[in-house]
Amino acid sequence: MNMTNTKSNEFLLKLCLQKLPDVNLQDWLSSKHKNIDSSRTFFLSFGLIARKIPRNPVTLSDEQVVFFRGLNQGFVPNQWTLDDLCRLSLLLALDPQVSKDYITTLIGASDMREQVVIYRSLPYLSNPEDFTMMTIDGIRTNMVDVFDAIALDNDFAYRHFPQNAWNQMVLKAIFMERPIYRIWGLDERRNQDLADILYDFVHERWSAKRLVTPELWRLVRGYLHPGILEDLQYVALNGSEIEKEAARKALEESDDVAEKWLKDQKLSSATLSWEEIGKRIIKGK
User: Fold this and answer.
1) Which pLDDT score, from 0 to 100, does residue 5 have?
2) CA–CA separation, 201 vs 212, rounded Å?
3) Per-residue pLDDT reduced to its tens digit, 205-254
4) How remote is the C-alpha of 178 from its chain's centroid?
5) For the chain, where are the alpha helices, taking DSSP H only?
6) How far is it, in rounded angstroms, from Cα 193 to Cα 17?
7) Rounded to whole angstroms, what are the CA distances from 116 to 17, 69, 205, 218, 280?
8) Which of these, 101, 72, 73, lies nearest to 88 by C-alpha position?
9) Is 57 in a helix, a strand, or coil?
């Protein structure tokens, strides 16, 4: 096991032991960390956590939050319960030489809650790149919680997905009406192919008399061909208040031509951040 994995494992095991409510559970978890000598013992230990460890909320110190965010910039503390952290600790206890085989097998046999924890755990492993194909397969799921574990508040896809897989994940998040402001790296990984895909998606939705999330316009900034520019101009003049806000913001952040059009129309500047726009959309549903 490399040094980074060892330090992370020690940090997390210490955290879990501090949070466990009695000595017997502490001894049990410690013994499981010391005795992962085969896939069978690992699978048994991982499965027993649901029976042994309570699903308690966990309060983390500033130091502990810094630890998690140093490995996953999208970390949200209140998403993790005590049993989740204990599962993560067992995943970190695996030797990287066997973890790919063990975890890939485990994901296929896990229930939904366990899958959520596994996908959320990947950024904290010392070999996350080994799970790229497994996670790309995972975004095909129809389980919203599992999809969210991959796409939201998790920087794994941002760091490891090739562009085509990234674009498919973002498109599916929009189609599923997920809060895309919670996709880490959304701005950094904008690209022309995604803008073109979203242009087609918008027109398919409009042809079917269906709405599109105003958050979508965030992703076409800087990639405006005449069709996208025309769409943004239309929405900036005719959309709902939140749609107008998002369209104006996208135009302001695109190019001189788009910005000049806004000035010619004497439209007021957008006042909300993209995160605020996303939160207002969620609140309005």
Assistant:
1) 61
2) 9
3) 999 999 999 999 999 998 999 999 999 999 999 999 999 999 999 999 98
4) 11
5) 3-19, 23-34, 39-52, 62-71, 82-93, 96-109, 112-121, 132-138, 144-151, 156-160, 163-175, 192-207, 226-238, 241-252, 256-264, 274-284
6) 47
7) 22, 18, 30, 27, 26
8) 72
9) strand
Cβ atoms of residues 128 and 99 within 8 Å: no
Which letter does DSSP use for residue 268 in this model?
P
Give the start-to-end residue ranges of the domains of the chain. 1-165, 190-285
| Distance of alpha carbon 282 from alpha carbon 89, whole angstroms | 33
- Residue 53: name the closest of 115, 114, 119, 136 by CA: 114
End-to-end CA distance of the chain: 47
CA–CA separation, 48 and 151 (whole Å): 27
Residue whose C-alpha is closest to residue 121's, from 165, 170, 82, 156: 156
Q: What is the pTM of this model?
A: 0.93
**DSSP classification of residue 81:** B
The list of the chain residues with pLDDT below 50 reads 1-3
Q: Tell me how far apart the alpha carbons of residues 130 and 151 are, in angstroms, rounded to a whole number.
A: 18
Beta bridge partners of 81: 57
Burial of 61 (0-12, 13-18, 19+ CB in 10 A): exposed
Q: Which residues pair with 276 in a beta bridge?
A: none
Burial class (CB in 10 A: 0-12, 13-18, 19+), 233: middle
d(CA 33, CA 44): 12
Token pair recorded at residue 113: 């809650």
Instruction: Report the residue count for the chain.
Output: 285
